[in-house]
Amino acid sequence: MDSMRFDRQGRRLPKAIKILIAGGFGAGKTTLVGAVSETKPLRTEEILTDKGVRVDDIAGVEGKTTTTVAMDFGRITIKDQFMLYLFGTPGQERFWFMWDEVAIGSLGAVVLADTRRLADCFPAVDYFERRNIPFIVAVNCFEGARQYELDEVQAALNLGSGVPVMLCDARMRDSGKEVLIALVQHAMESRKVGVSA
């Protein structure tokens, strides 16, 4: 049974739901969190320096000038009953040590994919598969990037048929909301299957 929380005036507080936004460097994680958050998102972006460019592979995202060095954080309230907390994870390998802490207690994750650098998704996909954290893949539609069929992306990432793959535009609030709805539905279905198995 879920325990209810109340504020000092006795009003019921919304149930907190933690969602991770993961993916490769430059896939649009910061953009997605910013597009859907009802509050100004917390960002830990820093300007890319010459030293960082030598460490981080920027092929395909040469125009990127900043990078997340800790996480992005946003919030969405749903009918005063639920509070979605969004945690955007850093994409570079040198910051992956943070994922374990951020993932604790999460309902599930969105793995943002950039078809120009699809291999950058593998670490996030592997991470969530190994920990049995429900996830979906959202292909961020960048202008000028080659378009693929969703089943081609699913095959390229070697995903099981139960992992939803969808298109999105991380800049657009409605598109981001659709992605989050799809994740919550998938996570709830995954839990039902897990409980009945």
Automatic annotation (TrEMBL):
Task: Tell me the organism.
Answer: Actinoallomurus acaciae
The UniProt keywords, alphabetically, are:
GTP-binding, Hydrolase, Nucleotide-binding
Q: Which Pfam families match?
A: ATP_bind_1 (PF03029)
- Please give the PANTHER family that the UniProt record associates with this protein: ATP/GTP-BINDING PROTEIN-RELATED, GLIDING MOTILITY PROTEIN MGLA
Q: Which SUPFAM superfamilies match?
A: P-loop containing nucleoside triphosphate hydrolases
Q: Which family does it belong to?
A: Belongs to the GPN-loop GTPase family.
Q: What is this protein's name?
A: ATP/GTP-binding protein
Q: Which InterPro entries match?
A: Gliding_Motility_GTPase, Gpn, P-loop_NTPase
* Source taxon at top rank: Bacteria
Q: What is the lineage of its organism?
A: Bacteria, Bacillati, Actinomycetota, Actinomycetes, Streptosporangiales
